């Protein structure tokens, strides 16, 4: 992303307000802060969203049947519907959903998305899709030539999608910005070591972590199309190959956030998630 050097004059009160927001991590300095807030104010929120909702269907006791994980109910609505409604509130309306086993259930429920005020299209993952990298590569033409969001369909959080995207756009040399949350047990997720705004090390589900970090991959990303240059045809998962490589090259950024984060990876995780949520009115 090219940049041009400018000289500007600002009122003292604006500079004081700006300086109060600089923390050395999310906003590194005045130049970075100005670019971030200008981008957030002026850049159109026209980025496309890709949701990976493939994988094997799971039997949920509460539903008495096998379902795609994205379709299990949380607070009275399918998890994926909660995510889509949240995207609509942040004005992300162009959505692609990558589906696998049980994909017809998702298509039938949401159709073209018009009932939710969205434009939804679908990609059918191959029967033997190896993982997230292959599913993302399949969507190369769909996401277009600009920044896009990538979401895992079995994750629900109260993250600010717009802020994530603008934070990502404000970085230098960015290819991917990974949302990060805190977990006590890190062996279940990808573990990130953060230095400033950059992720300098990424380990997928480490049994013996190489770092004391408790920041884990939240399954929510902002990306540039350059990500596709890193995915080989036989690549399976982003977590095991692509992310460690980006971290080594200094092109993987971290976006830590606080608040609700639910990972519905299996029936047991679903039960635990329900115990954390009384209502989702704040999402």
From TrEMBL:
This is Nucleotidyl transferase domain-containing protein. The lineage of its organism: Bacteria, Candidatus Doudnaibacteriota. Pfam families: NTP_transferase (PF00483). Residues 48-277 form the Nucleotidyl transferase domain. GO terms for biological process: regulation of DNA-templated transcription. Signal peptide: none annotated. Gene3D superfamilies: Met repressor-like, Spore Coat Polysaccharide Biosynthesis Protein SpsA, Chain A. SUPFAM superfamilies: Nucleotide-diphospho-sugar transferases.
